[in-house]
C-alpha cells in the first residue's frame, strides 16, 4: 500500500489547507481576538479535522494512521508559521496604526510591555517613548499612548465616549466583576451611582471621627516609642541634642494606617497579600488572552499562592462584614443600598468582588501617597517649615477635621498633597480606554476599530509644557496667589485620580485621609531623613504593579507637640 507522504497529492493538499487556514484564522482573530484557550481550541480542532479527513479518505491501517499523524503535524507547523508570518507582516506593513511612530518591536508584540510591566517600570518606559517619538506613540500592536492634554480628556475625561478596554477584562478567578472591571459605560454608570453614595460629604463626615481615632492610636504608638525606646525602629541618641529620636520605616506605618482605614471603613485588612495579588494582576491585565493559563505560566509560585490567599481572605472578610448588616456606617453599608435612580442593587457575587476592589484600590494608593509626601518634604526644608506653620495655625484654631481642610482653609497642605501626587502618582500606569468596533476621530487623528488608547498619566504631569520646572517640588504652584508668574500650570495634565466616568471612586476619601494625616501627625511629630536614607535608592526602589510601591522610607522621628515620657 502506498505511503501517504510519498503519494505527493495529500502533501500538497495539506500544505495548501494549512496556508489557507493560517490566513483565514488571522482574519478571524483580527475581529475576535481569542484567549489562549480559545486559540488552542481552534488549533486542535483544525488538527483533528485534517487527521480525520485523511483517515476517512485513505483508510485506517497502521501505515496510514502514522503518515496521517505526520501530515497533521506538518499541517500544524505550517499553519502556525503562516499565521505568525501573516500577523507580523500585517502589523508592520498593513495595520491602520502603521503610520503612528513607535518602536518596531511594539508594532508586532506586547512582549516588551509584559516584561517592563512585570518589573514595575512600564510607566517609565512609556515616558521614554514619548520623549523619543512624540505625544502620540504606538506602544503595542493595537495600542496608542497619548500625552497631549488637548487629546487626553477625549480619552478618559468628562467628554470621553470611550469605554474601558481589555485591561478591565477581570480576574480569571472571579465569578463576577468588581466596579473596576465593568467596561460598558451604561452598566458602569449604574454601578457607580451606588458606589458614589459611599463618598458624599455626609458619608465622609461619618468616617472622619474613625480616621481621627486611627491617627490618635498611631500617634500614641509613635509617642510611646520615642518615650520608651522600644518598638519597630531603633532609638538613636543624637550627640548634640537633648531629645531622643527614633528611626522608623515610614512606609510600614503608612501601610498599617491605610490598611486599617480600609479595614475600618470598608471590609478588612490583608497583611501583605495585596502586593503579590497586584503583581499577578499585572500579568493578566497586560496579556488578557493568557489569563486562563496564568496558573501554568513560569512565574513566581509564591505570587500564585498569595493571590489565591488574597481571594480567600477577601471572601472571608466579605462574609464577616455581610453578617453585620447595614447598621455600621462604612462604605459597605452604602454598597448594600439600592440605586436611587433605577432601584437596582449590586448583586451579592458582584459585592464580593467590590470588597476586594476596596482593599486593592484604597490601601496601597493612599499609603504610597503619604510616603511620596514625606519623601518630598524631608528634602525641601523651606516647604516643610511653611507646611508646619500652616498646620500649627490650624491646630491652634482646632481646625483639623479632614472634611474642612479644603484648599481655601489649608492651601499649603493641599499644595503639598497635589505636588507629591503630581511627581509621584500612586497609580502611574497609562489608563486604557477603547471605542470598540467603530472607528473614531480623536482631535483629527483616525483611531481604527479595536484600538486601545492610553493616557500617559506620569508623562503628562512631568511635561514642562504643562508644568514649569516639572521635576521640581514646588507646592506654591497649586496656590494661585503664590504661583510664580509665567509658570505653566495646566490642570488638565494632572490626573492622579483619573478623570471622567471611570475616575477614582474613593478620591474624596483619599483626600480626607491625606489631609487629616498631615494635619494631625505632622503637628505632633517632625520627620527627617533617616541615617540610611538615600534619595537615589528610594527612587530606584519604586515599582508600579498598577499601584506604586517603594522599597521603604527610613525617617527619624522627633516629638513636636506630642506628649512623650523622655
Ligand atoms: C491617593 C489615593 C488614591 C489614588 C491616587 C487613586 C487613584 C485611582 C486611579 C488612577 C483610578 C483609575 C481611574 C481610571 O481608570 O481612570 C482609581 C480607581 C478607583 N479607585 Fe482610587 N485612588 C486612591 C484611593 C482610593 C480609595 C481610598 C478608594 C476607596 C475605596 C479608591 C477606590 C477606587 C475605585 C473603586 C476605583 C475604580 C473606579 C471605577 O472603575 O469606577 N481609591 N483610583
UniProtKB/TrEMBL annotation:
Entry keyword annotation includes Membrane: yes
Co-factor requirement: heme
SUPFAM superfamilies, alphabetized: Cytochrome P450 (SSF48264)
GO MF annotations, alphabetized: heme binding; iron ion binding; monooxygenase activity; oxidoreductase activity, acting on paired donors, with incorporation or reduction of molecular oxygen
InterPro entries the record matches: Cyt_P450, Cyt_P450_E_grp-I, Cyt_P450_sf, Cytochrome_P450_monoxygenase
Similarity section: Belongs to the cytochrome P450 family.
Protein name, per record: Pisatin demethylase cytochrome P450
Species this chain originates from: Phialocephala subalpina
Classification of source organism: Eukaryota, Fungi, Dikarya, Ascomycota, Pezizomycotina
